[in-house]
Specification:
The structure holds two protein chains of two kinds. By secondary structure, chain A is an alpha/beta fold. Chain A has helices at 4-10, 69-75, 100-106, 123-132, 138-151, 167-179, 197-212, 224-227, 247-250, 254-260, 266-277, 288-297; strands at 26-35, 43-53, 58-62, 84-89, 92-93, 107-110, 185-189, 216-220, 232-237, 240-245. By secondary structure, chain B is of the alpha/beta class. Classes of the chains: A alpha/beta, B alpha/beta.
């Protein structure tokens, strides 16, 4: 397992065909991944992941540092290919180089640091970079760039240099570049970690809107308030999926979160303390909005 | 009052001065940091936080106004910047990206060696700094920097600046990317570092809950000016002013503020969950 090359040659280059019942947008089966750094010791990062992501679904992947979140994210669009096991995107095996381009348009990624994702010296050119490489007709390219900049609310700054944008604006530009590919799924790897409150809120609103329009969203995060917005949470520890379920169930499970090295969201902590004093108070309020509603409901 | 470790007065700074692209980043900033203090620096992106931080150890020189580190005046071209940097250490965002030596102890030793300290002194400092961040030299000194986890790498980077044995530690978003356990460890060790001797920390962050845990005082920047300054309780008591600056108060304060506005609670200055419980319980 130490050397991925051995396994690649052991598998047929085209990879296993997708199972016939593969209705999922992305399907991972028995995925192991090992980084081989320049030492004898190989570091296993993923230890047997089975996971399905449905079309249009919003999931959050949570876990402590080193749990394998980012390694998993990089498997979703073939940036990494499993050491053993398979990943299919719309039925295409990421192991097959013939599918790489199609998979890259289907699943787009946005990373943590906006400064490392910007290539061009003009906002609209940066947004056009991805779709330009698809060889689209000019009118189609233009329409996609216009749409993507509109969604991230940067249309007015389209002729600016990215260097003069704020951190939040830069991250929205990185998001626009991903959207211009018109992906079926957007993967955000700690994409709001470096943003201020306003920047984070703006990204959250854009994500909610895209999800409503049918785009699948995978959010990799350590921020439990951010995870609470997903429909399903996948909890990782030591390269394995330890639990999956709806946010209200997982984010209120203190023992599980402790085991994962994560914290209860602050509102859940507050709700539990109020519940301990007044048992009628619900112990599972996730957000300030929910908390305020519950407290107002209790007021005369 | 004790003499400040750093005093900034009427500081101004303009990027690309004299060109059509000139941008005013700092427009007359004044504040001081005293021994034993942890000062939280908050402000929306583009408010001048990073520009200000870079003035505190002489990476940028004041264009107008003064920055004094003890008796060293940074506006004076003759001031020895090495003396300044021995007193004020700056840790950038994602400092673990800047580890470059193969072995952890060598990376921690890099700064003190550059200062021209004798080898024995460097060795002693590396040992002290690594112990302070919970990566004892006997265990971690000969490990590969690439083999450390994210949290360990962040702590190794911190050890590198602690080995300079500064009086003031300037941190730009030190907890970004760390998991809750990594954060708690870092905050605890900074608290411990600060309460030993005549030291202070300046902590720039978007993470308001952490500022609440660690800071004594908050300075709020907006458009290159100090918009608010006070104790943590005073500043987070100004929810409306902060909201106008696109800044968030801690989640507990958001809940209390909204209920106060709705006339359901009397005004109060609670900040933490423990303080909020008895206040909110009265509504139930």
């Amino acid at each position: 397992m130490a050397d991925p090359l051995i396994h690649e040659s052991a598998n047929p280059p085209a990879g296993e065909p997708a199972p016939a019942n593969a209705a999922a947008l992305i399907r991972l089966q028995g995925v192991y991944y090992t980084y081989s750094v320049n030492t004898d010791q190989a570091i296993p990062a993923l230890g047997g992941i089975d996971l399905e992501i449905a079309t249009g679904e919003h999931i959050a992947i949570v876990g402590a540092n080193g749990s394998g979140k980012s390694t998993l994210a990089r498997h979703l669009n073939g940036l990494l290919v499993p050491t053993t096991g398979d990943v299919w995107v719309q039925g295409l095996n990421t192991r097959d180089p013939a599918h790489t381009r199609t998979i890259h348009h289907t699943v787009a990624m946005v990373f943590q640091n906006p400064d490392t994702q910007i290539i061009s010296t003009v906002v609209e050119e940066d947004t056009a970079f991805g779709p330009e490489n698809l060889g689209l007709p000019h009118a189609e390219l233009r329409a996609r760039v216009d749409w993507a900049l509109e969604v991230v609310r940067l249309s007015e700054l389209r002729r600016r240099s990215p260097h003069n944008l704020s951190g939040g604006q830069k991250q929205r530009l990185a998001l626009a570049g991903a959207l211009a590919m018109q992906p079926a799924c957007l993967v955000l790897d700690e994409a709001t970690a470096m943003l201020d409150a306003a920047g984070r809120r703006a990204v959250h609103e854009i994500i909610a809107q895209l999800h409503q329009q049918g785009m699948a969203v995978v959010t990799i995060t350590q921020n439990m308030a951010e995870a609470a917005q997903a429909e399903r949470i996948v909890a990782l520890a030591a390269g394995q999926v330890v639990r999956q379920g709806p946010p209200r169930k997982l984010l209120t499970d203190e023992a599980l979160l402790h085991e994962l090295g994560l914290d209860l969201p602050p509102m859940v902590r507050l709700a539990r303390q109020l519940h301990a004093r007044r048992p009628a108070f619900p112990p599972d309020r996730l957000t300030p909005t929910e908390m305020i509603a519950a407290l107002r409901g209790g007021a005369p | 009052m004790t003499a400040p470790l750093i005093e900034v007065r009427d500081l101004e700074y303009t990027y690309m001065r004299g060109t059509p692209l000139e941008t005013k980043a700092l427009c007359g900033i004044s504040f001081a940091v005293r021994p034993g203090e942890v000062v939280g620096l908050i402000g929306p992106t583009g408010s001048g936080k990073s520009t200000l931080l870079q003035h505190l150890n002489g990476l940028l020189r004041p264009q107008a106004g003064t920055v004094c580190v003890g008796t060293l005046d940074l506006a004076d071209r003759h001031t020895d910047l090495r003396a300044v940097r021995m007193r004020v250490a700056l840790l950038f965002q994602n400092p673990e990206d800047q580890l470059f030596e193969q072995y952890v102890a060598d990376d921690v030793a890099y700064g003190p060696l550059q200062m021209g300290l004798p080898r024995d002194e460097v060795r002693a400092r590396v040992r002290r700094a690594m112990a302070a961040v919970g990566l004892p030299a006997e265990v971690y000194g000969d490990r590969l920097t690439q083999g450390l986890s994210g949290g360990e790498r962040r702590r190794a980077a911190l050890a590198g600046v602690l080995a300079l044995e500064p009086e003031v530690l300037v941190l730009d978003e030190p907890t970004v990317g760390l998991d809750p356990r990594g954060r708690r460890t870092l905050i605890a060790l900074l608290q411990q570092w600060c309460c030993q001797g005549q030291r202070a920390i300046i902590w720039a962050s978007h993470a308001m809950e952490e500022i609440t845990l660690l800071a004594d005082r908050i300075v709020v920047l907006d458009a290159g000016r100090v918009a608010l300054e006070g104790t943590v309780r005073q500043v987070f008591g100004q929810g409306e002013t902060l909201a106008a600056l696109d800044l968030e108060v801690p989640a507990v304060r958001q809940v209390v503020d909204e209920l106060v506005q709705a006339g359901l609670l009397p005004p109060s200055d609670v900040l933490t969950i423990e303080e909020a419980v008895p206040v909110l319980e009265k509504l139930l």
